[in-house]
Amino acid sequence: MTKATLFEMSLIRGVLDEVKIERERQIEQGWTLTHDDTHKDGEIALAGACYAIESADQCSLGILKEIWPWEKEEWKPRRNRRLNLLRAVALLVAEIERIDRKVRAEGIRPQ
């Protein structure tokens, strides 16, 4: 297995820093950890998936309207594919955080 170069690692760190900034923005906008904990299993992940799908050129908006887990007013994709992907990853991070909190609180194993 080949190790990542310093340049590759710096690119990865840069993107991860942007994801962190987006996640912090979400929290500052009111989508707090407490709020996230009120969602059903997979709901936040599904929202993240919708933003990722939106970034695909072949995406049909009709499909997203069918699977978007929340009110349609909450659906706010950007014209910039990269920003939609950062939002998608930050939402997936939020779902992982929610699962981890649930596991700790209930003393159960993650699935």
List the helices and strands and how they pair.
Layout: H1 6-28, H2 33-36, H3 43-54, H4 61-67, H5 81-106
Architecture overview:
This protein has 111 residues and is mainly α. The protein has one domain (6-106). Helices cover 65% and strands 0% of the residues. Helix 3 (43-54) packs antiparallel against helix 5. The chain is globular. 16% of the residues are buried.
Question: What labels describe this entry?
Answer:
111 residues, 5 helices, mainly alpha, single chain
Radius of gyration: 16 Å
Order of helices and strands: HHHHH
Share of helix, binned: 55-70%
Could you tell me how far the N terminus lies from the C terminus, measured between alpha carbons in angstroms?
A: 29 Å
How many domains make up the 3D coordinates? 1
Please indicate the percent range of residues in DSSP E strands (runs of 2 or more).
Answer: under 5%
Instruction: Give the count of helical stretches.
Output: 5
Shape: globular
- Structural category is mainly alpha
Short structural description:
This protein has helices at 6-28, 33-36, 43-54, 61-67, 81-106. By secondary structure, it is mainly α.
